[in-house]
Amino acid sequence: MNSLNDYPADFRKCAEFHGHVCPGLAIGYAAVKAASGALNSSGSEDEELVCIVENNSCSVDAVQVLMGCTFGKGNLIFRDWGKQVFTFFDRESGKAVRISLNRPSPHRDRIHELRKKMETGQATDKDKSELHRLRDEFTLSLIAEPTNFFEVKEITMEAPEYAQIVETSPCSICGEQTMTSRMVNKDGSMACKGCA
């Protein structure tokens, strides 16, 4: 298993935020590197850069750390499509790039096989060691050659809306303050979706 010091400083920063090193985090790191090169951008202080992610995996943490795209600022948009795809839009240039993972780990089948053994308690120490080695190899290869695993396409798209500040109102059932744009009518009263 590699030491955290074996990785570039910006990847270590992602790992510290994420909590561990894994191939998923490296996928996000590599996607960011590919996007940075294609857009000539180093990130976003506010909403200058928007990222639309099509997954909610470890990879998204690298996008938040390195590109400054976050849910809190409203410049990280999540689409639950289960794909390692990242679309970056630069508001200043109007340029957009779609980064999609199109090449899996060269040891994907073996990694899945070893992971199954781990989950069922059948993995030997040798199996565990092999799994860690293969995952580390994939992680390092993503970091070393980010564009080798991705298709990078410049695309045309409309600018995503800016984040909006919306009024809140108490839910008629639980009383918790809720964005009025997210409330629903429940028997003539406005309620949060959880109560409705």
Give the SSE map:
Elements: H1 9-18, H2 23-39, E1 49-53, H3 59-67, E2 76-78, E3 85-90, E4 95-101, H4 108-119, H5 125-144, E5 150-155, E6 168-170, E7 177-179, E8 184-186, E9 189-191
Parallel strand pairs: 1-2
Antiparallel strand pairs: 1-3, 3-4, 4-5, 6-7, 8-9
Helix pairs in contact: 1-3, 2-3, 2-5, 4-5
Description:
29% of the residues are buried. The strands form 3 sheets. The protein has a 5-stranded mixed sheet, covered by helices on one side. It has a two-stranded antiparallel sheet with strand order 6-7. The longest helix has 20 residues. The protein has 2 domains: 152 residues, 2-Layer Sandwich (60s Ribosomal Protein L30, Chain: A), CATH 3.30.1330; 31 residues, Wheat Germ Agglutinin (Isolectin 2), domain 1 (2-Layer Sandwich), CATH 3.30.60. It is of the alpha+beta class and 196 residues long. The termini are far apart. The protein contains 5 helices and 9 strands; from the N terminus they run ααβαβββααβββββ. α1 crosses α3. The model has no long low-confidence stretch (mean pLDDT 93).
Which CATH architecture of the largest domain?
2-Layer Sandwich
Question: How many beta-strand segments?
Answer: 9
Number of domains: 2
Quaternary organization: single chain
Helix content: 25-40%
